[in-house]
Amino acid sequence: MTSPLEQKKIRITGPSVVTANRTWDGAVVYRTAQKGWSTELSDSAIVSTSDDARALLAEATADDVGAVGPYIAPVEIKDGGKVKPGNLREQIRAKGVTIDLQVPA
Amino acid sequence: MYAYDELDRTLINERVSEFRDQVKRRLSGELTEDEFKILRLQNGVYLQLHAYMFRVAIPYGTLSTKQLRRLAHVARRYDRGYGHFTTRQNIQFNWIKLAELPDALADLAEVGIHAMQTSGNNMRNVTSDQWAGVAPGEIEDPRIWSELIRQHTTLHPEFSFLPRKFKIAITASEHDRAAIKIHDIGLRLHKNADGETGFEVLVGGGLGRTPFIAKTIKPFVHGRDVLSYIEAILRVYNQYGRRDNIYKARIKILVHELGIEKFAKEVEEEWKQMGDSELRLDHAAIEEVRSRFSYPAYEKLPHMPDELKQAAHDPLFERWRKNSVSPHKVQGYSIVTLSLKPVGGPPGDATAEQMDALADLADKYSFGEVRVGHEQNLALPHVAKRDLPALFKALDRLGLATPNVNLVTDIIACPGLDYCSLANARSIPIAQELTRRFANHDTAGLIGRLHINISGCINACGHHHVGHIGILGVEKNGEEFYQITIGGRADENAQMGTLIGPAVPYAEVADVIEDIVEAYLALRDRPEELFVDTVKRLGVEPFRERVYATR
Question: Where are the domains of chain B?
Answer without folding.
Answer: 6-109, 142-291, 315-398, 412-548
